[in-house]
Every structure is written in structure tokens, then in C-alpha cells.
Design goal:
Radius of gyration: 55 Å
Strand content: 5-15%
Helix content: 40-55%
Distance between the termini: 117 Å
Number of strands: 32
Largest sheet: 5 strands, antiparallel
């Protein structure tokens, strides 16, 4: 076949195309080494896989700088399409998205121009058709839609053209291809179901297989296994078959075995595990594993030594149109290589690790999932750590599996990917496939993607493309060509540190790798600087130039320091940058952050000189100081730096230069003392700069005495003792070097004490902690203490706080167990006299606090306590007295201290309560405190009645009466009232002792009287909440003070409802008298011509009417409560006087100007009528109204309003009654109708045999059969049920289902009670007895209904179900409404179910009733 004319023409055409399109290659540009002998294909294939230099199908036509990087230019292409499938011919164009990640360009996308051109040429010249499938091994094979298979070598030359167009017309398009591992055989699957095998050495057809699978289905996949005699195929019916090739006696044959039937779920993807050559002895290899991807799950089966399913894994929820994907890869895990299966359907990639256990079984371990935001249509491994995926939008993503990071995204629009939709729909055989498989086929492109040896080939409609990983140099160079130097440096550093992903081309040990990458980074840095200088704008604003170098110089400095190449930074790079003034300044300023972070501690002399000049010239003194104190400055001109620091107030830098550069620790102190000393001696206020100097001086002295360097670091160990001695000698100098006659002794100590006494003493205290074992230091310690005493004692220049601070410091030192200091005790007495001087009232609080602090730190041992107490009392130092009393356990005396101290007087309550409550105090001590408290109780109550009451209730409940008597003697009734209120009224968090209960009645009576006088509004609440007052006494008190409402409440509580009514009625009449006569008189005055608002018809004051309305509401409520328990006659005795009281004043309102007042009174009268209508019959009310003189005479119109109001109430009640009756009838009818329908419905048995004897009821030969069928569907003979004791006589109806009762009894535990309950529950809703006769009965054989009944349990269950599914009855709602508005009690005949909530608790409850009829006037 290879010698056919068509084949020769294809070869010649391909040769011409290759010769025309091959460009020359620049060896220097691409760094291609010279080789004596070109490598063979076998040597390339046998290279170790871990070196990542596997066989690369290189397109020689593409090796030019313009096409290496697929991202360097935007490309657009025709839409990708299926081979001849119209549904894929129209896809939208998509623009290329620029990938701006730090990984650079990971993939090299190359167009195989030679193969692409020959595919197009074959379609035009020999009618080969469009490409449909591709596979890659040692060669590349491309199948076409007209049944041809084109085989190309590594140079893209056409080696073979297998098949003819005549074969294609018979078999259809090539739908699947596979090559065995030694590239000797090619299997071609066709759209009409045939399979052919070709010899790739000579292009000979070896086998044509037509019966490997059911006819009428297309071949979707065909795959060789590691065994060259074994292959597997997958057809459009979803079945998978094993193909075993045999050659016996020169005859070639193929045996087929079905591995998976499509009737159990269509398989649309298969992938055998191929073991690399260097892992042929792997323990998994003999099992010949095969992964199957169906529409619902993944299966892993072993073909050898026998067929076995090792694992199944369901997808979970996924899009039905998503395409299942499978891909195997051997991965290095825990020092061994094991296969990992990656599979997905939709947006989640799963990983399964397969390993063989010691017992010989295969174990599958689920690994971490990879979640994506796309629908994957292609999944391939490009190496053991990197996956390449294609989504449904034809976006290619490179994913690092360990980190699950997307390294790069490419657009495959220009590929015009071939889809296999026609084959999945089996259009060549009539389209006899399931809808699910056809839907998946819309995105299927299995045969368009083939991976081999770290390369992936994609087949387009007119081209072939190859994707390979770029080596690390190429990835960096791609960024450099785009002048993305910063990203190139970042990427190179990730290669240097070993954190980069998808690395190719770095060999050797880590040190060698770092050296190679470092050399490349140096090259990049030099290029970066050169490019920045060339690209710098020559003209423009200075800010633009600075910004230009800000993007360059910091990155250059950073990577030079990371590479530890300061020689490169300070020599070559700085020399180039110094040529430009702006870049030089940016460089020097960028050094600051690295110097401060201690990444750079040494600068060369020229750069240090330039740094000082630049920062000083630009007034960046703070930054300069930060740099100086972090650098080695031995190469500097010390005097120049010191003068510059002093002139610019860089004190930290100046101290650092003196200390580190000249080992001089004294001169900085002299300079600073010279600045702040004169101002302090003269008493002037220090400037801010002088305060800063003083604070730095204190910190510097503290660091020097502690062995630490200033402002950071440590003093060298050999210099520490010397520095301490020098600093002490300097501080205790008698005079300064430039002293004058007026200078006082010890000027430096004196200056520090005046500047900040407390902080200086703290510095000394910290220093003394380190002097315990140093004899010379202890001498210094005693010396400086003597100096402090000499300077501060008897010196009016120091305040009491400063002197007290000194003696507090001394007391702390003297209190230490290893103390060696000596201080004359007379000095402490002298200080005590100074602090407690009664002649000086200034700074009283300050002096007391100083003395208290001195005592608390142990200074009390230095004083005579008696004398100290006397002085403290004279000076009114009550906190000192408290301190001394507490030390002597005189706790009762402390109460006097609190009471005398105006600032702490309110704290006495907490002190007394804590002392009496807490353990640790003796009974005598507590008793003394209690006595003292009772002596001062009047003062305590005056101070805070509430807290005094709490204290008495908690600790002195038995002394309440004496306390009350004392307060009564004071004749301060308001104070007594406040105290009793706090004692008697319950408050949250306060518990009254039971001993107060015996006193409660008398105390409550007294409180009632006090409330009547001072808080009448709180009286009613007190009477309602308290139950311990005496009723008769309380009634007398309230009557005496004229509080009618309180009196009425007490009378009603006593049981005298009529008396309460009389009191309230009298109050009501008083309110009426206060309104009506005044209104009438004003009306008459108006008639006499007096100009008044009432004469003009205005209402009385609102206060009068509101008081009247409040009184009326109160008496109506009383009548309501009382009428519940009274007969009709007594009710009239209550209500009619009230009605008469409201109607009587209206006869006085005859003046027309009193119309508004009359209307208001009529409205209130109507309120009385409406209230009494619930208890008094309507005729009695009407009769009473007509008997009244006001309404008994005159026209009917005067009482029309009252009559119509009562009629409205009657109409409303009538409407409510009619509605209730209607709802009752409707609910009753509904219940009976549904009950009748449920018990008369037909029942359908589950089977036609008795569930006990198992005989069909039609086949028994008895004269008459009586059957029972239950609603559960079980059927029985009556005789069988009676034999099982599940029923009685037919008339009784007490039947129960034997089968259901038995199961319920079994679950209930077997007890008698449980069995009864089980039978009750299993009894059917309607039990039907049916009699059937075959011989002696009527010929019609009808089923006669004998009985239908419900037992009480069933009826209750039925009512429960009905209420559950329908909601509460409307009658039940009205009943509950009447009960809630009546006596608020559940009716005895209708007990509420336990735990049931009222319908009115539902926030959505609405009662829809007809409103009362409108009465027309």
C-alpha cells in the first residue's frame, strides 16, 4: 500500500512543503550545542523519565523567536468544530487573555506545520477527508473522516498512508487510534464498528475485525495494554470488550470477551495503565489494570490473572452533559513509585492512589480533590506533578497537583479542536444510542488529545499542535523578551530556592542548581540596570524620573542581597547607577530599609560618604540617624559625623559614633548635661528638644549601667565592667569639668533629680539589682545613696513628692534580705516631720500618698508607730491611720477614719460589709465593728439610705426597730421613709433575712402612712405587691389621708365589695360635682353677659374630665369583678347607683352652651351601659332609664342615643350567635360526611390468599366462606382469625389484623399491655366482613357488606388526623374565644389537650366575623 501512487504523491508533497517552510536556526541565539552524532529515536526514548528530557516532537518550522512564545502576540482563529458535525461549526471568537502570573509561560505551544500542511494537502489531493483522531508514540498517526490513517515520523515526514477511500466508504470514518508500546502495530477503530490492525514497519494490513462487539455501534475507544497481544475497545453502546490477538500456524485471529455491558450503564471512557520501561517489575504491572468511566461511576478492574473489579467510585452530583475523563500516572510517593488515577466529570478532579499490599491485594486510597471553576473536557498528565486540562470554553489550564495552583491558562481557539460527537451519536450506523450518551458526546474530544513522554498533541480540523513544558531558562527568557525584568527575577529566585512549579532543565545537586540560577540572575540584574538607564526619560518632571528608578533600583538591591552579592551591588551596579543623579539618589535612599532590617551592615567608604552627603543635603536626618546606628562606621570620618549629628540633634547617632567608633562613653553624657543642666539650675522650663535630650540621657545611663549598648545591641563583654565604673565615676563627680564658683556639689546627680526624680531612682533601682555580688559596685551603691541624701534632705528645691520618692526608694532597698546599705534613722524621722507638718496645708493629698507608699514598701520599720499615728491624725492623713489601725487590728477605729475622710466616706459601706462577711477576722473584731457601726447608723443613713438599708438587712436585722426609733427621734420623716422603702421593697439581687418577717406588719403599716404622705403614686403598687401589712390599720391610714382608690382596694381585698363601691362612688360624685356645677355656673354667667370660654361652648379643663374618666374606669372594673359572684338583685344594687350617679348631673346641664360637656357625660354614661349589659338584663336597663326624671319626660329623641347604642350591642350578639350556629352545622356535616366516606370506601387486598392458612379464598370447598379484609390490605378467613384469637363473633366487630398485631407486639416487648396497644394500633380504620359462596350461594357471587364500625381508639386517632391536616375547627375557635373572654378557664366538658397551645397564640390568627349592622340615624 505504501507504494501506491497516492502514497508517493503524499510523500512528495510533504517533502516539498517541508523544504519550502524550514527556516534557518541561529545556534547562538538558542544556545544549541554542537554534536558529532545526532541522537537516535531509540536513545531518546530510553532516556530516564525523571530528567524531564523526554522525546519532543519538535516542529523545526517553528524554531524562530517570533513564534516560541504563544503569549507574545494575540491570535484569533476560526471557531473549533467537530469533523463534519454541524452543531460545532459555529462557535464564538474569544480573545486571548494575558497571563500575568509569577510562573511565567510554563507551556511551549507549537504548531506542527509539516503535519498540518500534509493533512490539508491529503484532504485536497487524495480526498482523505478531515482529521478525526490522533495518537502519539514513537510516531504520530492521524485518522481521517474517509477512513485513512496517516503516519508521520519525528521529522513530520509522511511515512505511511494506511487504508483507501474505498475502505473508508465501507467502514466509515476513523473514530479511534492506538499504537502499541514498541511502535510496531496500529489499531484503527471505525465509525461503523470495524477494527483494523496495521504493521507500522511496512504498512501491511494484518487483521480486519468485524465481530468483536455487537454490530450497529461505533468504536469510541481502542487501546493497547502493556501486553502487545491484548487490547480493549469501547463502542457507542457503552460496552467494553477485551481483544486477545492470537497467531496459530500462521493464522491471525482475535478473541473478544465482554468486560462490561452497556445495559448496566454506558461506559464512554477507558484507560489502561501503561507501566514505564524502568518500572516493568512494578508489583502492579502483572494485574494489567484498566480504568472505566461510565456515566455514573468509575471502575478499576484487573484483566490478569483473572478478571476482577478492584474499585468502584461514584461521581456524585454532576452536569449530565459533562464528559468523564481518566488519566494514569506513576507518582513518587513515600520513596516508592505508585500509579495514581486522575478522573473527573465536571469541575472536580479526584485522585486515587493504587498500591499493592503485602497480602497481595490491591488497595485504592483516595487523595485530595482538586476543585475548579470550569467544566473539564480533557485531562492529561504532562509529568508526575503537573496536569493539563481543557475546559468546555476551550481554555487550557496547567495545574500543579501538590499545591493545586493554576500555573498558566491558554486559549485553544486557534487549534479548532476536533470533537467526536458524530461517533458518540453513532450517526454512521443510524444513531441508535441513548440520549445520555449523545448528550455527553456533544463535548467529547477524546481522540483529539494524545499525551506521550511529557508532550501533549491536540488535533484541529486543519492542524496539529503540540504542548511541552518549557525549561527554566526558556521561561525566564520569555519574560525578559517582554522586558518584564522584575517578574523574571522573581521567577528565577523561585528556581534558586526550589519553590517553582513545573521545573524542567535543572540538574545536579542543590548547590550546583543554585549556582547556575545565580549566574543567570546576575546576568538579568545587569541587563535590568542597563535597560533602566537607556529607557530613562531625558526630559520631564523629576517625579517621573524618580518613579522610573523606583521600579528598578529596590528590586536590584533586594536580589543582590538575597544572592549575597554586595560586591556586584557596590561596584558594577552602583558605578552604572551613579552616572545618573536621580538613579543614584534612589539607590542611596533604598538602602535604608535594608540597613534598618539588618540585612546590610557594612557599606564601602565611597558609598558611605555619598550616603551621608545625600541624606544631609536632602534634610533626611531621621533616616540618616536610623542608618548610622545600624552600620559599621569604622570607615567614616568620626569628627565630621559627630559634628553633623550634634548640629542636627541626632543624639542617638552621636552616642553610637562615640561608643562604637571611639569607645567613649563619657563625652556624650557631658554634652547632654551641658545642654539641660543650666536650664534646670536656673529653674527655667525646658524646651521640647531639651526634654528629649534628658529622656535619652536617662535611657543611655540605664543601658550603660546594665551592660547594653545604646540605642541597640550589647556592649562587648570585656568592656562592661569598665563602662559601668566610668559612668558611676562620672555621675558622682563633685564638680563638672567646666565648673564655676556658683556651681553646687554633685551637679550631675542634682540635674537628673531635678529633671525626673522618679525615673532616675528607677534607673538606680534596676542597676542595684546587678550589684549584689560586686564589692566595688556595692561601694558605689552606698556612695550614691549618701549623695542622694545629702542633695535632697533639707533642700527646699525638692517637693514632698520628690523627697518621698527618695525615701520610698531607700525603704525598698533597706527591706531587701541581702541589703548592705546604711541609712541614718534620724533622716526618716526628719522626712516624717516634713511630710506631716501641720503648718503646711498645701499638697495634702500628695504628701499623704507619698507617706503611704513609703510605709507600704517597708518604711514603717524606720518609724516609731505611736509618734507616726499622732502625726498622721494631726495632719488628717486618714489613709495612714487606716494603715496603722489595720496593722494593729483596730478595725473599729478605721470606721472613724472613713467617716472623717470626705474623699472616701462613701466607701465605708463596702468596708463594713466585707469585714463582717469575709472569714479571717475574729468574733471580737467583728463585734467591735458592729458596735461602732450601730453607733454611727444615723450618720450612715444620712449618707446613703439605700446602702445603709442593705447593710442593716444583711448584718443587723434584729436591730431594725431600734434604728427606726432613732430615726423617729430625729423627726426626719423623709429620711425614715427612704430607709424603710429600701428595707421593705424587694429589689433584684437583695435577699431579706427571715428575722425581718416578724417585724414586717408594723414596719409595713408605718410605710403605708409614709407613702400616703410622701409618695402617693407608689401607694397602690405597694399595697398590691406587699402582703404583710395589717388590713384594718391600712384602711384607717388611707381613709385618714383621703386616698379613696387605695381604700377601695383594701376594702375589696377585705371582702367588703359594697364598701369599696361606696368609696369609689363617692369619689366619682366628687369629680362630677367639681365639673358640673362649675360648668353650669359658667353657663349662667355667660347668660349674664360675662365673656368666658364656657359661655362659648368650650369643654371644661382636660384634668377634670380625665380624673372623672379614671374614677369611672376604676369603679366599672370593681363592678365587673364583683358581679361574677353576685346574684341578679345584688348586681342591680351595684350597677344602678352607678348609672344614676352618671345620669343625675345631666339634668343640670340645660344651658345650650354646655352641649359639649353634656355629650362627654353621655358618652361616659354609654360606657356604663355597655359594661352593665353583660350582667343586667336589657329590659331592666331600659325600664330604669325611662324611670329617670331626665329621660322620663320630653321627646324620644333625648334617649334615642342610649337606645340605639344598646341595640347595636344586641345586633352584634345576634350576628355572633347566628355565625356560631352556622359554623357548628357546617363542621358537624363535614365530620359526618368524611367519616361516612372513610368507612364505606372499598378496600383492595394485597393478595388473594388468607395470610394465615395461605389458601386462596376462591378455592376452598366449604359451603360458605366468611372473609375479613383490613385497611392495611391483609385478608383472612373468619375461622382462621378466630383460631388465632384475633376476633369474636361476626356481630361484635372486635376484629384485629393478626399480622400487624403480631409485629407490633414483637416490637413492643411481648408484654400484655404492649400487645393490646399493638392490636389497637394495627386495627384497621374500617373492618369489613365479606361472605362469598361458590356453590350454594347466589350465582352472582357478590360481596355483601356485613358491618362497618370504629372503636373509640380509632375514632380518637381519626379526629387527631383530621385536625392535623385540616386545622382547628372554626367552632373550636369560637368556643375558645368565648372561654378566653369569659372566665379565662377551660370548660369542664372540653379539656384542652396537654401541651396544646391556644389558637390565639398564633400571630397570624384572624377572626373573620360579620360586623354589627349599621344603624341609620
Amino acid at each position: 500500500m505504501s507504494g501506491s501512487p497516492d502514497a508517493h504523491s503524499l510523500v512528495s508533497a510533504s517533502s516539498q512543503l517541508n523544504l519550502m517552510e524550514i527556516d534557518s536556526i541561529d545556534d547562538k541565539e538558542f544556545d544549541i550545542p554542537q554534536v558529532d552524532t545526532p541522537p537516535t529515536l531509540e536513545s531518546i526514548l530510553n532516556e530516564p523519565e525523571d530528567e524531564e528530557e523526554t522525546f519532543i516532537l519538535e516542529d523545526t518550522c517553528l524554531l524562530n523567536t517570533e513564534n516560541i512564545d504563544a503569549h507574545s502576540c494575540e491570535t484569533s482563529s476560526l471557531a473549533s468544530s467537530d469533523s463534519g458535525d454541524p452543531t460545532h461549526l459555529k462557535r464564538k471568537k474569544r480573545t486571548v487573555e494575558m497571563n500575568a502570573t509569577v510562573h511565567g509561560s510554563v507551556l511551549r505551544h507549537s504548531l506542527l506545520k509539516g503535519i498540518s500542511a500534509q493533512i490539508v494537502s491529503a484532504a485536497d489531493k487524495v480526498d482523505a477527508g478531515l482529521p478525526t483522531a490522533i495518537t502519539v508514540s514513537g510516531v504520530i498517526a492521524v485518522g481521517t473522516s474517509h477512513g485513512l490513517a496517516l503516519v508521520f515520523d519525528i521529522n513530520q515526514a509522511l511515512r505511511l498512508c494506511l487504508g483507501t477511500t474505498a475502505t473508508g466508504a465501507e467502514f466509515g470514518a476513523v473514530s479511534a487510534l492506538t499504537i502499541n508500546h514498541d511502535c510496531s502495530r496500529l489499531l484503527c477503530g471505525f465509525a461503523k464498528g470495524q477494527i483494523t490492525m496495521w504493521d507500522l514497519a511496512n504498512g501491511k494490513l494484518l487483521r480486519t475485525i468485524t465481530d468483536a462487539h455487537p454490530p450497529g455501534t461505533a468504536i469510541l475507544h481502542v487501546k493497547f495494554t502493556d501486553d502487545p497481544t491484548l487490547a480493549v475497545c469501547n463502542d457507542s453502546g457503552g460496552s467494553v470488550f477485551e481483544l486477545a490477538f492470537r497467531r496459530v500456524m500462521g493464522m491471525r485471529s482475535c478473541d473478544s470477551r465482554c468486560l462490561f455491558s452497556g445495559s448496566k450503564g454506558e461506559v464512554c471512557c477507558i484507560e489502561p495503565l501503561h507501566t514505564p520501561p524502568d518500572l516493568k517489575d512494578h508489583p502492579i504491572a502483572p494485574y494489567s489494570l484498566l480504568a472505566l468511566g461510565s456515566l455514573t461511576k468509575i471502575l478499576v478492574i484487573g484483566l490478569k490473572p483473572f478478571l476482577k473489579v478492584w474499585m468502584t467510585f461514584p461521581y456524585g452530583k454532576s452536569d449530565p452533559s459533562s464528559v468523564p475523563q481518566l488519566a494514569w500516572q506513576f507518582v513518587h510517593v513515600q520513596k516508592t513509585y505508585n500509579p495514581v488515577l486522575a478522573f473527573c466529570r465536571g469541575d472536580t478532579v479526584h485522585f486515587l492512589l493504587v498500591k499493592k499490599e503485602e497480602m497481595g491485594t490491591i488497595h485504592v486510597i483516595k487523595q485530595r480533590q482538586l476543585h475548579l471553576n470550569c467544566d473539564v473536557i480533557s485531562l492529561s498528565w504532562i509529568n508526575s506533578r503537573t496536569l493539563v486540562l481543557v475546559d468546555s470554553h476551550e481554555k487550557l489550564q496547567v495545574v500543579d497537583r501538590p499545591s493545586q495552583e493554576v500555573l498558566e491558562t491558554l486559549d485553544l481557539d486557534q487549534v479548532q479542536l476536533v470533537y467526536n460527537s458524530r461517533h458518540f451519536k453513532s450517526l454512521a450506523t443510524g444513531g441508535n444510542v441513548s440520549q445520555a450518551l449523545a448528550l455527553v458526546g456533544e463535548k467529547a474530544c477524546y481522540q483529539s488529545v494524545s499525551s506521550y513522554g511529557g508532550q501533549i498533541v491536540y488535533l484541529g480540523t486543519k492542524s496539529a499542535h503540540i504542548m511541552t513544558l518549557r525549561n527554566w531558562r526558556e521561561r525566564v527568557d520569555c519574560l525578559l523578551k517582554q522586558e518584564r525584568f522584575t517578574e523574571a527575577l522573581f521567577l528565577a529566585w523561585s528556581f534558586h530556592e526550589g519553590t517553582a512549579k513545573a521545573v524542567v532543565g535543572l540538574f545536579g545537586d542543590p548547590a550546583k542548581r543554585k549556582g547556575v540560577v545565580a549566574d543567570k540572575m546576575v546576568e538579568i540584574l545587569l541587563q535590568f540596570v542597563e535597560r533602566s538607564l537607556k529607557k530613562c526619560p531625558e526630559q520631564g518632571k523629576l517625579q517621573v524620573m524618580e518613579q522610573h528608578f523606583q521600579d528598578v533600583v529596590p528590586a536590584v538591591v533586594d536580589y543582590c542581597l538575597l544572592l549575597q552579592r554586595t560586591d556586584l551591588l557596590f561596584n558594577q551596579l552602583y558605578d552604572r547607577l551613579a552616572e545618573n543623579v536621580v538613579s543614584k539618589g534612589v539607590f542611596l535612599e533604598s538602602l535604608e530599609s535594608y540597613i534598618v532590617a539588618e540585612r546590610l551592615d557594612h557599606l564601602t567608604t565611597p558609598i558611605m560618604r555619598d550616603l551621608l552627603a545625600h541624606y544631609h543635603g536632602n534634610n533626611m536626618m531621621d533616616s540618616l540617624e536610623s542608618c548610622i546606628v545600624h552600620l559599621d562606621i569604622t570607615s567614616l570620618d568620626m569628627q565630621q559625623v559627630v559634628h553633623m549629628c550634634w548640629d542636627n540633634q541626632l543624639y542617638d547617632a552621636m552616642i553610637y559614633v562615640y561608643n562604637r567608633g571611639m569607645n567613649d562613653y563619657i563625652t556624650p553624657m557631658e554634652k547632654l548635661f551641658a545642654e539641660i543642666g543650666p536650664a534646670l539650675r536656673e529653674g527655667r522650663t525646658l524646651t521640647d528638644a531639651q526634654v528629649v535630650m534628658g529622656n535619652k540621657l536617662l535611657v543611655y545611663i540605664s543601658c550603660s549601667l546594665a551592660g547594653r549598648a545604646y540605642p541597640l545591641g550589647d556592649i562587648p563583654e570585656d568592656l562592661v565592667p569598665q563602662v559601668k565604673n566610668k559612668v558611676f565615676d562620672f555621675l558622682i563627680r563633685l564638680h563638672s569639668a567646666e565648673s564655676c564658683d556658683e556651681e553646687e556639689v554633685f551637679p550631675f546627680v542634682r540635674t537628673l533629680l531635678h529633671f525626673d526624680t522618679r525615673e532616675f531612682l528607677n534607673v538606680l533601682a534596676l542597676t542595684f539589682e546587678d550589684f549584689r555580688n560586686d564589692k566595688q559596685a556595692l561601694e558605689y551603691q552606698q556612695r550614691i545613696v549618701d549623695i542622694l541624701l545629702r542633695v535632697m534632705v533639707d533642700n527646699p528645691d525638692f517637693t514632698p513628692s520628690q523627697v518621698g520618692g527618695l525615701f520610698t526608694f531607700l525603704a525598698r532597698q533597706l527591706a531587701k534580705p541581702d541589703n548592705t546599705l546604711f541609712v541614718n534613722r534620724k533622716l526618716f524621722d526628719q522626712v516624717l516631720e516634713f511630710l506631716c507638718s501641720p503648718d503646711d496645708d498645701s499638697r495634702h493629698t500628695e504628701r499623704q500618698q507619698v507617706l503611704l507608699e513609703l510605709l507600704q514598701v517597708g518604711g514603717v520599720v524606720q518609724f516609731d508607730e505611736g509618734r507616726l499615728l499622732d502625726l498622721a491624725e494631726k495632719a488628717e492623713f486618714y489613709q495612714i491611720c487606716e494603715f496603722l489601725y489595720e496593722k494593729k487590728h483596730l478595725y473599729d477605729r478605721i470606721i472613724d477614719c472613713y467617716l472623717r475622710d470626705n474623699l472616701r466616706k462613701v466607701e465605708i459601706f463596702n468596708y463594713i460589709h466585707n469585714l463582717l462577711s469575709m472569714p479571717g477576722y475574729s468574733a471580737e473584731e467583728k463585734q467591735s465593728v458592729s458596735s461602732k457601726t450601730l453607733q454611727h447608723i444615723q450618720e450612715l443613713v444620712t449618707l446613703d439610705p439605700s446602702r445603709s438599708a442593705d447593710l442593716v438587712a444583711c448584718h443587723f436585722p434584729e436591730d431594725v426597730w431600734p434604728l427606726v426609733s432613732q430615726l423617729q427621734i430625729l423627726d426626719d420623716q423623709i429620711l425614715l421613709f427612704e430607709f424603710l422603702s429600701c428595707i421593705l421593697e424587694p429589689r433584684e439581687g437583695h435577699h431579706r433575712p427571715e428575722s425581718l418577717v416578724a417585724l414586717d406588719p408594723v414596719l409595713h403599716d408605718m410605710q403605708v402612712g409614709l407613702l400616703c404622705r410622701f409618695a402617693p403614686r407608689q401607694l397602690q403598687t405597694f399595697l398590691q405587691t406587699s402582703q404583710l401589712y395589717r388590713l384594718e390599720e391600712a384602711i384607717k391610714v388611707t381613709e385618714q389621708h383621703g386616698h379613696s382608690e387605695a381604700t377601695a382596694y383594701l376594702l375589696e381585698k377585705k371582702g367588703d365589695a359594697h364598701g369599696a363601691f361606696t368609696v369609689l362612688l363617692e369619689k366619682l360624685r366628687e369629680n362630677l360635682t367639681a365639673i358640673v356645677p362649675r360648668g353650669q355656673e359658667e353657663g349662667e354667667a355667660g347668660a349674664d353677659g360675662i365673656d368666658d370660654g364656657r359661655c362659648r361652648g368650650e369643654m371644661p379643663e382636660r384634668g377634670g374630665l380625665e380624673g372623672l374618666e379614671a374614677s369611672l374606669n376604676c369603679i366599672i372594673a370593681l363592678c365587673h369583678r364583683s358581679s361574677q359572684n353576685l346574684d341578679q338583685q345584688l348586681r342591680e344594687v351595684l350597677w344602678f347607683p352607678l348609672l344614676e350617679a352618671m345620669m343625675a348631673p345631666q339634668k343640670l346641664l340645660k344651658n345650650p352652651n354646655s352641649k359639649q360637656l353634656s355629650e362627654a357625660l353621655k358618652e361616659l354614661t354609654m360606657r356604663v351601659l355597655n359594661a352593665m349589659s353583660s350582667f343586667i338584663p336589657l329590659p331592666a336597663i331600659v325600664k330604669r332609664i325611662l324611670q329617670d326624671p331626665v329621660y322620663g319626660k320630653g321627646k324620644l329623641s333625648e334617649i334615642q342615643g342610649l337606645i340605639l347604642g344598646m341595640l347595636e350591642t344586641f345586633n352584634y350578639e345576634q350576628t355572633l350567635l347566628e355565625t356560631t350556629t352556622s359554623l357548628l352545622n357546617h363542621d358537624l356535616h363535614w365530620s359526618l360526611a368524611h367519616l361516612r366516606a372513610s368507612v364505606t370506601r372499598g378496600l383492595h387486598p394485597r393478595q388473594d390468599s388468607c395470610n394465615i392458612c395461605l389458601q386462596q379464598y376462591k378455592r376452598r370447598q366449604d359451603s360458605a366462606e366468611e372473609m375479613v379484609i383490613f385497611s392495611c390490605g391483609h385478608l383472612y378467613h373468619c375461622q382462621c382469625l378466630e383460631a388465632k384469637h384475633c376476633g369474636g363473633a361476626l356481630a361484635s366487630g372486635a376484629w384485629s389484623c393478626y399480622k400487624c398485631s403480631s409485629s407490633q407486639a414483637g416490637r413492643g416487648g411481648g408484654g400484655g399491655g404492649g400487645a393490646d396497644q399493638g392490636r389497637g394500633r394495627s386495627a384497621s380504620l374500617a373492618q369489613t366482613c365479606v361472605t362469598s359462596a361458590h356453590r350454594k350461594s347466589s350465582a352472582s357471587g357478590r360481596k355483601v357488606l356485613v358491618e362497618a364500625a370504629l372503636d373509640p381508639q380509632q375514632a380518637q386517632s381519626w379526629n387527631h388526623l383530621r385536625c392535623l391536616y385540616r386545622g382547628p375547627s372554626r367552632l373550636a375557635i369560637l368556643s375558645e374565644l368565648s372561654q378566653c373572654h369569659g372566665n379565662d378557664k377551660t370548660a369542664p366538658g372540653h379539656p384542652a389537650p396537654p401541651g396544646a397551645a391556644s389558637v390565639f397564640h398564633d400571630q397570624d390568627f384572624q377572626l373573620k366575623l360579620s360586623p354589627p349592622p349599621v344603624v341609620e340615624e
